[in-house]
Write a structure and sequence with these properties.
Layout lengths: L1 H19 L19 H13 L3 E5 L2 E7 H4 L11 H16 L8 E6 L6 H21 L7 E5 L12 H7 L1 E6 L2
Helix pairs in contact: 2-4
Length: 181
């Protein structure tokens, strides 16, 4: 009977160990445990990392906006994160938390999802809302306070490029995060 219990416990331990070694998405050097505010050199490295992933930064006084290509975050045609999205969003989360460390408590964060004009207006709005919801949920789970998040999906409204070309449509599929008053 002792051998049976030992085998059973060993089997359970082996199964748990196997669960811990399952395929994981790429790790990010930008973890939720990273201290904020960041040093200037770390902030510069983080900004550089995000730019290599296609993130565009827009500074407007105390307000900063990050425009992230949806094709970088989501599998095309879906609202499922790509394999690389968690590493990118870890960096975005750290960048936002650092920006918030220099702003008044409770500063709002607006997350806006946008699509191209390929589908019907109803589907566009639903997909854009899902883009924004998924990014907002990820940021909330990684240190951003829920009461600061204001999440909206705008569909194909406010295009920034010509939707009649593949490149233009790709530019219009985006998530914009605005931090600041």
């Amino acid at each position: 009977m002792f051998k049976c219990k030992s085998f059973g416990l060993g089997y359970v331990a082996l199964c748990l160990a196997a669960c811990g070694t399952a395929s994981q998405s790429p790790t990010s050097p930008w973890t939720a445990d990273s201290p904020t505010p960041l040093t200037a050199s770390v902030q510069q490295a983080l900004s550089g990392f995000l730019r290599t992933k296609g993130v565009v930064f827009l500074n407007q006084g105390e307000r900063v906006a990050l425009a992230i290509p949806a094709d970088t975050l989501f599998t095309p045609g879906t609202t499922d994160f790509t394999e690389d999205a968690p590493a990118l969003l870890d960096g975005v989360s750290l960048y936002i938390r650092n920006a918030l460390s220099h702003l008044p408590a409770g500063t709002p964060i607006k997350i806006m999802g946008f699509t191209d004009q390929i589908r019907t207006t109803k589907v566009q709005k639903r997909q854009a809302q899902a883009y924004a919801d998924n990014v907002g949920s990820y940021l909330w789970a990684h240190g951003i306070k829920a009461h600061q998040l204001h999440i909206h999906g705008y569909g194909s409204a406010n295009p920034i490029a010509d939707n009649h070309t593949p490149a233009g449509a790709a530019f219009n599929r985006r998530v914009v995060i605005m931090v600041g008053p």
